[in-house]
């Protein structure tokens, strides 16, 4: 799945099932594993806001809990005018499981695209020392 249009569709589809009764701000992510599997994630809110989970972390946690730990790219979609960017917690989780050079595609509702990498999103990040 190298085409950003397919990644956009998968991430937008994931956003369509977001549980966002408080913010009304759906976000979706589509994480592509090296084996070709796509793990979709959406944001899931909670009345205790600190317990809310973002779309990117949902996708990564689904993949890891399925035994998959090698990834090719991720697309992130938001109902925003400009392409949406991951929060700090999601950036740190991305650096835990993804190589610095892995592509990150950021999408807006109009289909605007910004391409970056995991390393560019969080320079000087904490890294697993194994």
From TrEMBL:
Gene3D superfamilies: Cytidine Deaminase, domain 2 (3.40.140.10)
Sites where the protein binds Zn(2+): 54, 87, 90
GO molecular function: cytidine deaminase activity; identical protein binding; zinc ion binding
Keyword match Transmembrane helix: no
Annotated catalytic residues: 56 (proton donor)
Cofactor: Zn(2+)
CMP/dCMP-type deaminase domain residues: 2-129
Statement: the UniProt record of this protein carries the keyword Metal-binding: yes
EC supergroup of this enzyme: hydrolase
EC number(s) stated in the UniProt entry for this protein: 3.5.4.5
GO biological process, one term: nucleobase-containing small molecule metabolic process
GO CC annotations, alphabetized: cytosol
Keywords: Hydrolase, Metal-binding, Zinc
Catalytic activity line of the entry: cytidine + H2O + H(+) = uridine + NH4(+); 2'-deoxycytidine + H2O + H(+) = 2'-deoxyuridine + NH4(+)
Signal peptide (residue range): none
Chain segments annotated as coiled-coil in the UniProt record: none
Family that this chain belongs to: Belongs to the cytidine and deoxycytidylate deaminase family.
Functional description taken from the UniProt entry: This enzyme scavenges exogenous and endogenous cytidine and 2'-deoxycytidine for UMP synthesis.
Annotated protein name in UniProt: Cytidine deaminase
Biological source species: Pseudolactococcus raffinolactis
